[in-house]
């Protein structure tokens, strides 16, 4: 066999966790640069009766790429665009390609790929497909699943399979997931097969993009901000909205601090207790009219309408996007400082229907506030994709005991979200960290179907994990 499987502990050490920091262990590491390498790695694991864990760039937050006594299959060597077809608006790309690199190459050809996870500069295309990643612009463009046309995968027995979505506009042959193998693999988090290549749909990019930072004086989000979200998402609202992101008061403080350090000079009034970041993307000939209509909505719904920030150039948009990314980066830095005492960050990923946000947010706020009152030094904030019913709550625990309590509150929030018709994870995936909770909250029929699907793809259980 030509593939070398590394067993040296020093080599394995950098492949034993992902961004979740969940600890793992591996029997070996197979660095794969070709489809044949993947097949050999799977053969190595079958011969020794050990499981496998597929890895990309290890940017996942749910522990999905953390090996648990398995063979780690590193797909970073499977990199590069295979074919870019502007006429068909399609691109074929290998799974290990950095997502941001793919998007840059596509943009250079005058095209556009919609999914925009925050980690796009540190995640692989295959990983984004395996987790059905989304991002701030999923409000308009949807998650990754909507952009995947075909996949090339290696199955547990070593067979190479090309999976494609059907072209029929209408179908009434069983339920769609049963007859669409692409839909089965997207979001499966490496539990069915190894993704090695993808064909992705592309679009013409919007001709103009503007953004607004809409500010609110109210700290209780349900008073003005949630009605504004509903107004902004209403069918009668102007077209073009692609992002609706929440910043609470603590998140705004982080943005102001990052702005001062970077010299970007974003001015936010002292009275702002919350903000929404809106991106509006349209064709050039209607853009000014659409933005003017959005101003009217802001004037009606924002308590600090006169302080609204308007961003109209690429430089301004990119600068504020960097400031937005400073929020999770700052939280991660604070969590790292608490790690010495066993503390750290507990981040939620639940989502609810937008119509239930007015119930969910006060409930979640009360639980987080009660915890902060009981535990000195515990801080919390919420920010992110409120336009999708998906605000991230972050609980920063100062020590190990507080972190246990914070995890319990995070799980309770997820249970409440499911009770309101939502989900445990909206974009980060289930991985190892949330597997037990997500399984607990699945209906029995769904548990049986998922178990049957995994056994159908992988009878020997090569990819199956606890």
- Overall strand count: 16
The major sheet is characterized as: 7 strands, antiparallel
- Supply the helix-strand structural class: alpha+beta
Oligomer: single chain
- Uncertain runs with pLDDT below 50, 5 residues or more? none
Q: Which shape, going by the Cα principal axes?
A: globular
| CATH fold category name of the largest domain | Uridine Diphospho-n-acetylenolpyruvylglucosamine Reductase, domain 3
Number of domains: 3
Distance between the termini: 30 Å
Name the average pLDDT: 93
CATH architecture of the largest domain: 2-Layer Sandwich
List keywords for this structure.
Uridine Diphospho-n-acetylenolpyruvylglucosamine Reductase, domain 3; 3 domains; alpha+beta; five-stranded antiparallel sheet; seven-stranded antiparallel sheet; Alpha-Beta Plaits
């Amino acid at each position: 066999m030509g593939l070398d499987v590394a067993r040296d502990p020093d080599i394995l050490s950098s492949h034993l966790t992902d961004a979740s920091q969940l600890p793992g262990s591996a029997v070996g590491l197979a660095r794969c640069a070709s489809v044949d390498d993947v097949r050999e790695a799977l053969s190595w694991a079958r011969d020794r009766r050990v499981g496998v864990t597929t890895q990309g760039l290890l940017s996942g937050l749910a522990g999905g790429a953390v090996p648990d006594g398995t063979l780690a299959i590193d797909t970073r060597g499977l990199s590069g665009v295979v074919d870019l077809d502007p006429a068909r608006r399609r691109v074929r790309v290998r799974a290990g390609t950095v997502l941001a690199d793919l998007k840059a190459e596509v943009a250079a050809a005058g095209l556009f790929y919609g999914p925009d996870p925050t980690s796009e500069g540190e995640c692989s295309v295959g990983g984004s497909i395996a987790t059905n990643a989304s991002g701030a612009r999923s409000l308009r463009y949807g998650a990754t699943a909507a952009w995947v046309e075909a996949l090339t995968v290696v199955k547990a027995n070593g067979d190479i399979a090309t999976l494609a979505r059907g072209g029929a506009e209408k179908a009434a042959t069983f339920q769609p997931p049963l007859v669409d193998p692409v839909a089965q693999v997207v979001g499966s988090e490496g539990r069915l097969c190894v993704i090695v290549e993808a064909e992705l749909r592309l679009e013409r990019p919007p001709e103009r993009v503007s953004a607004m930072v809409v500010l609110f004086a109210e700290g209780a989000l349900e008073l003005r901000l949630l009605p504004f979200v509903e107004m902004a998402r209403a069918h009668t609202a102007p077209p073009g909205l692609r992002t609706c992101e929440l910043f609470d008061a603590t998140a705004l403080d982080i943005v102001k601090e990052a702005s001062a350090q970077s010299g970007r000079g974003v001015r936010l009034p002292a009275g702002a207790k919350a903000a929404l970041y809106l991106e509006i993307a349209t064709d050039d000939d209607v853009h000014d009219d659409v933005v003017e209509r959005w101003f009217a909505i802001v004037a009606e719904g924002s308590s600090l309408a006169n302080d609204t920030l308007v961003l109209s150039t690429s430089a301004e948009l990119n600068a504020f996007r960097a400031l937005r990314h400073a929020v999770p980066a700052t939280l991660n830095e604070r969590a790292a400082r608490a790690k010495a005492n066993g503390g750290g960050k507990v981040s939620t990923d639940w989502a609810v229907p937008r119509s239930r946000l007015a119930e969910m947010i006060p409930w979640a706020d009360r639980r987080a506030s009660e915890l902060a009152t009981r535990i000195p030094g515990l801080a919390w904030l919420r920010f992110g994709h409120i336009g999708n019913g998906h605000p991230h709550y972050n609980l920063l625990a100062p020590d190990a005991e507080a972190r246990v309590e914070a995890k319990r509150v995070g799980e309770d929030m997820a249970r409440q979200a499911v009770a309101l018709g939502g989900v445990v994870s909206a974009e980060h995936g289930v991985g190892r960290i949330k597997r037990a909770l997500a399984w607990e909250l699945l209906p029995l029929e769904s548990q049986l179907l998922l178990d049957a699907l995994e056994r159908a793809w992988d009878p020997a259980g090569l990819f199956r994990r606890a």
